[in-house]
């Protein structure tokens, strides 16, 4: 997709946004996907977010296994709508998904360019005859351009409603009860550093902000990341990689003490038959 401000490129695998180039700012806003660090760009996390205890869950008395973040990011989507400024991708249940996830579903990712912004909407429909249990989340990785003039530590994240971050630590891909606090005062900012993510993601259950901005100390380029209706949030980067993931989630990894019953999983969404559910995040580039 392309307008006078932005050019966006996608892959049908995972319906993944793989490039967002500023035509006026001459900035690439999405991580390059370098497999030496992390080979993805902006995967969708469905039908779970994070890891399951022992990669296992139970529903209707049966045992199932799913990998971390589910299967949608590795499946081929169908491109249903393509224009200069809008594209929609869809994924539905099939014989393979039903073996590991016994629910009928229709997942649609809809992207739209509006001036210097791109929005991503997740729409989940339940065409089945039983309640659909799912989680979903975003995992967009944003580039932090590092060169002779600008270092990774010149970048910082700005929060519009928080003065501190209380995050849960991760152990074996599960959420622990151990928390830590980062003071964002006086300017509600979090300076980036490689060491910030050496112990894995910052998993936040109590974020008040609905806009997070990435800026730097050396120039005026960056972006605003807007989201609402996502009760959990993750901030992460691969070890020593020049990007940061801002991850709005409707769902979260299992806690270390979870009983593995899917209907009792924290953050699980229960969608009645013939009902739809939708959430949107957007990026405004400058």
Distance between the termini: 18 Å
Helical coverage, percent range: under 10%
The Cα radius of gyration reads: 19 Å
Question: In what order do the strands lie side by side in the largest sheet?
Answer: 6-7-8-9-23-19-18-13-16
Number of domains: 1
Report the oligomer. single chain
- Using the 3D structure, state the CATH architecture: Distorted Sandwich
Strands, count: 23
Looking at the structure, what is the overall shape? globular
Low-confidence stretches: none
Q: Largest sheet, described in full? A: 9 strands, antiparallel
- The CATH topology is given as Beta-galactosidase, Chain A, domain 5
Mean pLDDT: 97
Q: Please count the helical segments.
A: 1
CATH class term = Mainly Beta
Please indicate the percent range of residues in DSSP E strands (runs of 2 or more). 35-45%
Q: Give the helix/strand class.
A: mainly beta
What string, H for helix and E for strand, traces the elements in order? EEEEEEEHEEEEEEEEEEEEEEEE
Structure description:
The structure is a single chain. By secondary structure, the protein is mainly β. Helices cover 2% and strands 45% of the residues. The strands form 5 sheets. Strands 6-7-8-9-23-19-18-13-16 form a 9-stranded antiparallel β-sheet, with no helix packed on it. The longest helix has 6 residues, at 95-100. The protein is globular, with a radius of gyration of 19 Å. The model has no long low-confidence stretch (mean pLDDT 97).
Summary, kept brief:
The protein has 286 residues and is mainly β.
Short descriptors:
eight-stranded antiparallel sheet; 23 strands; 286 residues; 2% helix; globular; mainly beta; nine-stranded antiparallel sheet; 1 helix
